[in-house]
Design a protein that fits this description.
Mean pLDDT of chain B: 94
Strand order of the largest sheet of chain B: 2-1-5-3-4
Number of helices of chain A: 13
Largest sheet of chain A: 5 strands, antiparallel
Oligomer: heterodimer
Distance between the termini of chain B: 51 Å
CATH superfamily of one domain in chain A: CO dehydrogenase flavoprotein, C-terminal domain
Helix content of chain A: 25-40%
CATH architecture of the largest domain in chain B: Orthogonal Bundle
Structural class of chain B: alpha+beta
Mean pLDDT of chain A: 98
Order of helices and strands of chain A: EHEHEEEHHHHHHHEEHEEEEHHH
CATH class of the largest domain in chain B: Mainly Alpha
Number of domains of chain B: 2
Largest sheet of chain B: 5 strands, mixed
Order of helices and strands of chain B: EEHEEEHHHHH
Radius of gyration of chain B: 16 Å
Chain lengths: ~325, ~180
């Protein structure tokens, strides 16, 4: 690691002052420390936000406020989350390992960076790591890469699970920064790469995530289906998060989000519109997949994801709508 | 610079001055506690697993200076050659290792797992995440998936943990149906 100074903020305001001065925030560090070891991240100054008190889960209106420092493990173990937003617990538990979940935090997990092998290999071209250097993944080993939301500059996925569930649950990210406090829906938090893949999300310089809020529970059937190369402790090839309610034999309401399919956690209202008001059937599920994948484009090794997404969607919809 | 401290196996130690020092390197290089192993050094293998305030973490991915005031337990604190813990004895009984490199991490991980089960934490294979999880081989395998064993002693590791759970019938972790 390159040398850096490490300061310990005792409050969110102290942290914000350091961030305004150019420091990088560290919470659990499970992603950042790894990137620093590989010199993919080379901050001069870190500010630890571990003692800022942002580690509580509290009821808010009919929903829940999850502090940015709540660990993934504590969030998934919280009985309120497990009972009323089981999708979130399921997605978190499908990710990483118990050791990592004990350290990784809610805010940090939203900011985790891609697992593209070329991003991790500093001898290779990567526009996300080094803007303007090119993208080795397009012509390279791109089996884990995105088929939606890609650009000429970048085809890397956001790799996480938690954010996919938060997207389906209409969660909101709360941030504070030099311009004051603001809220960002999870669906608007991550940025598609466009011609500026270096920025993964819409956080501005000096901004700090303070919490994520969940709206009132929907009471729907919630499933997180993660397809991966081994049964546990692996990133998704594709994941599907669903929160669905039936009325009689018809789909009354449906929120669907996809992980590792696009460059960002992916949600497409047009897919949900196909499903709502209809009777579940293989033909309907296929129609939903047609809409979801209408602009999908593979890059060779990841072509299989297009067919896999269709099957994963059908399987998830089948499970969510069966009697 | 203000000196900050952490407790390791019950003894207070000053944390390192170098901000780059990971918890793992501090334990191994500075304190001479070489039980926790450096396997991948990237949080992918679990050989470096130690307990912080009773919870398991990858010590390779944690900066030592972030542990001010923490209570850290390593395999040396769990038991030594002349004072094997019940869990360590179970690993010996069931041959829960071959080369032994991953074993300190496996045992630290298993100790934390017992507490997580007792507290009713669900896992990715729990049918109902809102319920107190049942104990099954599938549950234990999922919960130990953060510790790799290149020798492939997995089945014996699970057998050792199952024995531990069976021998603690009074605890919530020992209940089959709770």
């Amino acid at each position: 690691m390159k040398p850096f100074t490490l300061n310990h903020a005792q409050s969110a305001n102290e942290a914000l002052a350091s961030l305004a001065g150019g420091a990088t925030a560290i919470a659990g560090g499970t992603n950042l420390v790894d990137l620093m070891k590989l010199q993919i991240a080379t901050p001069d100054e870190l500010v630890s936000i571990r003692r800022t008190g942002l580690d509580a889960i509290t009821p808010e209106n009919d929903g829940l406020r999850i502090g940015a420092l709540v660990t993934n493990a504590d969030c998934a173990a919280d009985l309120r989350v497990r009972k009323s937003w089981p999708l979130l617990a399921k997605a978190i538990l499908a990710g990483a390992s118990p050791q990592l979940r004990n350290r990784a935090t809610t805010g940090g997990n939203l900011c985790q960076r891609t697992r593209c092998g070329y991003f991790y290999d500093t001898t290779q071209a990567c526009n996300k790591r080094e803007p303007g250097s090119g993208c080795a993944a397009r012509e390279g080993f791109n089996r884990i890469h995105a088929v939606l939301g890609t650009s000429d500059a970048c085809i890397a996925t956001y790799p996480g699970d938690m954010a996919v569930a938060l997207l389906a649950l209409d969660a909101v990210v709360h941030v504070e920064g030099p311009q004051g406090a603001r809220t960002i829906s999870v669906g608007e938090f991550h940025r598609q790469p466009g011609d500026d893949p270096g920025r993964d999300n819409v956080l501005e310089r000096g901004e700090l995530i303070t919490a994520v809020t969940l709206p009132a529970p929907t009471g729907g059937r919630q499933i997180y289906r993660k397809v991966r190369d081994r049964a546990s402790y692996a990133f998704a090839l594709i994941s599907v998060a669903i929160d669905l309610s039936m009325e009689g034999d018809r789909i009354a309401r449906c929120a669907l989000a996809f992980g590792s399919l696009g460059t960002v956690p992916w949600r497409d209202p047009a897919v949900e519109a196909v499903l709502v008001g209809e009777r579940p059937s293989p033909a309907l599920f296929d129609k939903a997949a047609d809409v979801l994948l209408r602009d999908a484009r593979g890059f060779g090794k990841n072509d299989f994801k297009i067919a896999l997404a269709r099957r994963a969607l059908a399987a998830t919809l089948h499970e969510a709508t069966k009697g | 610079m203000v000196q900050i401290f952490a407790r390791v196996n019950g003894t207070e130690h000053p944390l390192p001055q170098d901000s780059r020092r990971t918890l793992l390197d501090w334990l191994r290089e500075d304190l001479g506690l070489t039980g926790a192993k450096k396997g991948c050094d990237h949080g992918q293998c679990g050989a470096c697993t130690v307990l912080v305030d009773g919870r398991r973490i990858n010590s390779c991915l944690s900066l030592a200076q972030l542990h001010e005031g923490d209570e850290i337990e390593t395999i040396e604190g769990i038991g030594g050659a002349d004072s094997l813990s019940t869990l360590q004895k179970a690993f010996v009984t069931h041959d829960g290792f071959q080369c032994g490199y991953c074993t300190p991490g496996q045992i630290c991980s298993a100790k934390a797992l017992m507490r997580e089960l007792a507290e009713g934490w669900p896992s990715a294979v729990s049918e109902d995440v809102a319920a107190h999880p049942p104990i099954s081989g599938e549950e234990l395998r999922e919960r130990m998936s953060g510790n790799l064993c290149r020798c492939g002693a997995y089945s014996n590791i699970i057998a050792a943990i199952e024995e531990m759970i069976a021998e603690a019938p009074g605890t919530p972790a020992g209940r089959q149906d709770a």
